[in-house]
Amino acid sequence: MISEETIKQWLLDEDMLLEMKYDESADFHFIIEFPKENIMDVVKPKDKDCIILACATQVSPEHTNLMMSSNPSVKKDFILDLNFGLNQFLVDYELQVQNDVLQQFIITDQIFEDGLTKNELVKTLKRIFKSKLHCIWLIDKKFGTIS
Questions:
Q1: Is the peptide bond before 72 cis (omega within 30 degrees of 0)?
Q2: Is 100 exposed, middle or buried (0-12, 13-18, 19+ CB in 10 A)?
Q3: How far is 10 from 30, CA to CA, in rounded Å?
């Protein structure tokens, strides 16, 4: 069984835990900061033998404006490149796209009870964060950096 206290202690040990969130569909839901200034969720869904780690990112209005004014083929290539890149991180993800313009992306992964260790938790959080960085860097590369 996945212990809320154990996960909470691991997050406290690594100075990641920000708050506990009430979530009726979960046995527990922690809001964490990993790394600094990046918010993620650690959730144990009810009746599941895993925890889900998630990071949602809203694309800045400046970047969505740059995307909107881009060539249609550049926008389509960007979404394709984003899919190819994220797929290599072996994470689950959801892209919210309107008219070939990325609005938001959510990156998740899960760790099942039989593989849950502090090491695996931190490694998975790192992989999710690196996936987020990949998205941000690809946006900057394709559409320009906002100063």
A1: no
A2: middle
A3: 12
Question: Can you give the residue ranges of every domain in the chain?
Answer: 4-143
Write out the two tokens for 6: 């154990």
List, for residues 1-34, the tens digit of each pLDDT value.
999 999 999 999 999 999 999 999 999 999 999 9
- Contacts (Cβ under 8 Å, ≥6 apart) of 2: 27, 44, 49, 50, 51, 113, 116
pLDDT tens sequence across 66-92: 999 999 999 999 999 999 999 999 999
Give the CATH number of domain 4-143: 3.30.1460.10
Q: Are 122 and 44 in contact (CB under 8 A)?
A: no
Report the distance separating Cα 79 and Cα 85, nearest Å: 10
